[in-house]
Design brief:
338 residues, alpha+beta, Arc Repressor Mutant, subunit A, elongated, WYL_dom, WCX_dom, CBASS_pafABC_assoc_protein
Length: 338
């Protein structure tokens, strides 16, 4: 990179980095590639891009990064007149860590229906790390391990994923046949999809359900069929997807209420070490136990609390205490507890 390049131009380059790297790769891999062909490929991969922008990017490669790019009038295309590699910008330690985390997470999708897609992306990421002289590709897995526990879906969700993503992009409603977990019924629903997200390896999308007249979450592996429609929708201006997602304790977002739980000294140490939810508050008691207060979905909290056994006690609401009493009573019957 030219030492005279201004900080503003460096910032601009970082923003156009993927596109300019792709242009360099096209010229390197396709001798005498035409301007029209470069523009066609870049527009297809990055969105509509003008010939003027492509010309400017090539000038940047040639003038600022001193890439040996030339144009042959006789052949009607660009080529490299000497061997060259793309001048990757130096990565910060934080950027390297981010890339390594991404690489290790992608590796853990082996055995799922997305394995082929993620392995292809992982190969490209490893190539980048190697070309950038950051860390040898073969050392990535030995350098860092990020445990990423997730549930492997029994069904292939790729086709559904692509259709929903396209509907989100085009702002078009979809019709789905959905098997509801709560009712154990299959029903046809028209949904305006807003956002795709992953929770513990399971893909969901949230959107406005015309049947329930509210925003709902749908697991892709419980969708029996999906078809596109011509109905256009507008996402509400006040809908913030990140605020929506973080409102859940785990995944359920509806019917929240204030819940108070007492954790004994043994479990309190672990509970205090983490921020489980943004609404939480903790009152420490003299004996080392804590009162944990949260505003969340009661079904999720009930499952969470019961996982701690004798170390956790729901104090409020009384209705949730009664539900847990009934669960314990049924467990006693199952295990023949006197």
């Amino acid at each position: 990179m030219s030492k005279t390049m201004s900080s503003n131009r460096k910032l601009a380059f970082r923003k156009m980095f993927p596109r300019i790297y792709r242009i360099f790769s096209l010229i390197k891999d396709n001798k005498y590639i035409s301007l029209e062909e470069i523009t066609r490929i870049i527009s297809r991969e990055f969105g509509n891009t003008s010939v003027r922008t492509i010309k400017r990017d090539i000038r940047t490669l040639r003038d600022d990064f001193r890439m040996p790019i030339a144009y042959s009038k006789a052949k009607g295309g660009y080529y490299l007149y000497s061997k060259a590699e793309f001048p990757f910008p130096k990565l910060t330690e934080g950027e390297v860590l981010s890339l390594l985390i991404t690489a290790t997470i992608l590796h853990q999708f082996k055995g799922t229906d997305l394995e082929k897609d993620f392995e292809g992306l992982k190969d490209k990421l490893e190539l980048f790390l190697r070309d950038a002289n950051v860390i040898p590709a073969e050392a990535i897995e030995n350098a860092l391990s990020i445990p990423f526990a997730f549930i492997k879906p029994k069904v292939d969700v790729r086709d559904k994923f692509v259709k929903i993503l396209k509907a989100i992009r085009d702002k078009k409603s979809i019709i789905i046949e959905y098997h509801s977990f709560s009712s154990d019924q299959v029903a046809e629903r028209r949904v305006d999809p807003y956002h795709l997200y992953n929770f513990e390896g399971v893909w969901y999308f949230c959107g406005y359900c015309h049947l329930r007249k509210e925003i709902r979450d749908f697991a892709l592996d419980r969708i029996k069929s999906i078809r596109e429609t011509s109905y256009e929708f507008k996402k509400p201006r006040d809908f913030d997807v990140y605020e929506y997602i973080k409102s859940a304790f785990r995944i359920n977002k509806g019917d929240v209420e204030k819940i108070r739980i007492k954790f004994d000294p043994y479990q309190a140490r672990w509970i205090k070490e983490r921020i489980w939810h943004e609404t939480q508050s903790i009152e420490e008691l003299p004996d080392g136990s804590i009162i944990y207060e949260i505003v969340a979905n009661r079904d999720e909290i009930k499952r969470w609390v019961m996982g701690y056994g004798k170390h956790a006690e729901v104090l409020e609401p009384e209705s949730l205490r009664n539900e847990i009493r009934e669960e314990i009573k049924k467990l006693g019957e199952i295990y023949k507890v006197l």
